[in-house]
Amino acid sequence: MAGETPLMVVDGGGDVVQWSHQAEELWGRPAGEVVGRPATDLASPVPAPGGGDVERCSDGGPRDVSEGAAGGGLCVRPVLRDDGSAAWGVFLPPADGLVPGVESAVLETLSAHMAAALFVVDEELHVVSANAAAQALSDASTTQIRGRPLTDMWPLTSPGELENMLCQAMGDGRPAVDHVMRTDPKNDSQHTHNVSVLPLRDARGAVVVAHDVTAQEKARRGVQALHAVQERVGQTLDVVATCQELVRALIPDLADIAVVEVVEPVVRGEEPPLSPLGRNVPLRRAAFGNSGGDQQARAHPVGDVRALPFPTPYAQALADLKPRTIALGPDTPWLAADPARAEAIHASGARYLLVAPLTLRGKVLGLLSLYRTQRSGGFDEKELPLTLELATHTALSIDNARRYAREHTIAATLQRHLLPPAPPSQTAIETADLYVADDRGAGGWSNACALPGARTALVVGEVVGHGIHTAVTMGQLRTAMQSLAALDLEPDELLARLDDTMTRLARERRALPLGDPLRDEPLSATCLCVLYDPFTHTCTIASAGHSPPVVAGAASITRVVDMAAGAALGDRGGPPYAATTVTLGDGDVLALYTASLLSAARPEDGTSDTQPLQRLLADTERPLQDLCDDILYRLRTDALPGDAILLLARTRPFPADRVVTWPLDDEPTAPALARRHARRQLTDWGVDEDTAYDTQEIVSELVTNALRYGAPPVRLRLINDRTLTCEVHDSGISAPRLRHARTVDEGGRGLFICAQLAHNWGIRYTDNGKTVWTEQALPSQHP
Question: Tens of pLDDT along 624-633?
């Protein structure tokens, strides 16, 4: 190596011609005793500092003659003398590429100028030396540090970890690098260090290097908190849940305590106010989180609603929409304006505050308050942009949840007004219902409709989807169903007409403009329709993709009606709807329900499907509302896939003294005989004279039409129920129609007269003919 001085130089004859001062120290012999003498006279082998041997390299190149440079051997290589002659130079091997003496110089230089703290410890883990950065870290001088245990001079939250690193490194000679350790803050802020332990090669000891990475760690945790907010916040369409997600994402990476307050109208789904926020606008404390456990002091409980005190940084941040950082202390002047917060801040040990408004397009949605204790250190200017970014993301998520809450409120209100307040009371059937709404605003409905002839229609349906449009579709189908039921259609025909209505609605939806997102949403619904006749004790049932009903009869026997489920409403191309007829006894219970009710049930023995429902319905003697309540208590309502609806109906006998039937002969005198029967029966029922007279006219006209245009046999039935019903049945299938006869016409006024005297009339077709009926309001009833 150029500029390197050999220990000695030997000429071609083997005589020593040059002897260095370093050689005198190694061999202990002055130059006068060696120069000019053969090198072999020194010793053979020549002692070296590490106990190695010196050997000439036959190829003229340098070569370690013992264990190499690391073992302390000598190297011999040719050199040029000043006179130009060649000779052999003997050199000490380099130590890791450095000449002897440089290692200590490098260590001293690093120790003096290194920004990192550097401790040298012995095998007892006591400090041997420490640079200036290490002295500042220990808050002690070199004299105070030397000879003391390292972990005493450098307080760490986990001193045992550092001791284990030192013992392991000195034991196996392997360095331990890049370990993160934190100081015990006590009365100062906590610092984070990247610690490496390097064992000394030729001595029992080690070097500890500690880089202060507090700022980098704070920045890393801030970015980590931002990523957590972007990943977690906004996963639910609920304002309060969104705020709670934010708090969980920020603690403990960005703050020790976090509070989120939301403008109260925003929680209800209303439009947020414009900035600046008025002093009297209330805010709801939506979320609170801390790293100190559940016993952490807080000013107000979650859910508390109150206006922000003024003047405080909280109110000011919502006035100018600027975040701000504040150091907290006992002399902070604005704390007097909010004693409750001042007490909580003092009790929690909070020393630093960052408040950031939650705003979107100049509108105020809420406020984010972050607190740090002394150990975590204050907020720096670099954290303000980061906080603003996560506040913007949160504000957008809250606004999305607010819009959903508003739409859900509208949908729920619309659905509530579209549904009947309670099932109507019927003479031949008793009903009770259970309705548990899906939080997302689904489209389920149930209804019990009173039909002419003391019959009852029971319907349960569900529109697929959620939101306002689903509720509107539900209302349209329910209205169409009620109109079709009034036409005395059989359940299978009613569903076919309802399917036509659904198809028209779907066609209207597909005709919306291309930019309308509703255009591509599918439209489908399920429906179960039941028609009960108390005089025949039969239930005629038809299903459009809906679950079959459950029947609970005598002796606690329950069963699911075996029937075909047709295609859902709106699914074109399916087979025609089929009707199934079952016979019910007095006191039997019929249960109609939605699929969500079964999925939310809590079976005690692990069974599924309708088993829990069937077990509860087995006790048919219990009040229906009690049965509904018991089923409600067994529902898992935390995650309903749709509206959970249950409609129960218990049959009961129609009073025999309130219905009468007369067969009529196919004779011209039949109308007069029918009038006399009606007059006598109405007198027995105590019907007022005016109503009785009108009924006699209706009976006369209907019987006359049946004899003239229908076919025998003919019979007349009067039913005294919520209305007075007059029914005339014949075996003909020709449809009578209402005509407006001219002045000179001798007939054609029968149905017109009936329509004028009754408040409702219609025609019902059966397998063996048709029934023309009218309804009249009794004095104690309303049409």
Answer: 888 888 888 8
Q: Is the pLDDT confidence value at 603 over 70?
A: no
Does residue 504 come out as left (phi exceeding 0), alpha (psi in the -120 to 50 range) or beta? alpha
Instruction: Quick: pLDDT tens for 184-199.
Output: 666 566 678 878 888 8
Tokens of residue 504, six digits: 């028209």
Whether the predicted pLDDT of 386 surpasses 90? no
pTM: 0.58
DSSP state of 666: S
* Three-class SS state of 711: coil
Cα–Cα distances (Å) from 592 to 541, 589, 645, in that order, read 11, 10, 8
Predicted confidence (pLDDT) per residue in 387-421, tens digit: 888 888 888 888 888 887 777 677 666 666 666 66
Identity at 750, one-letter amino acid code: G
Q: In the numeric block, which tokens belong to residue 114?
A: 């290194």
Does domain 8-91 sit in CATH 3.30.450? yes
Reference 265, options 414, 361, 405, 397; nearest CA is 405
187-224 in b/e burial notation, b at 16+ Cβ within 10 A? eebbbbbbbbbbbbeeeebbbbbbbbbeeebbeeebee
Q: How many C-beta neighbours within 10 Å does residue 124 have? A: 11
102-212: CATH topology is Beta-Lactamase (3.30.450)
- Res. 92: pLDDT tops 80: no
Q: Which residues pair with 289 in a beta bridge?
A: 258
Residue of 501, 505, 490 lying closest to 577 (CA atoms): 490
Query: How many CB atoms are closer than 10 A to CB 343?
Result: 13
Nearest residue to 591 (alpha-carbon basis) of 457, 416, 458: 458
Q: Looking at the domain that runs over 419-651, which CATH code has it been given? A: 3.60.40.10
Phi/psi at 439 (nearest 5 deg)? Answer: -60, -20
Give the distance, in angstroms, between the CA of residue 147 and the centroid of all CA atoms in the same chain: 58
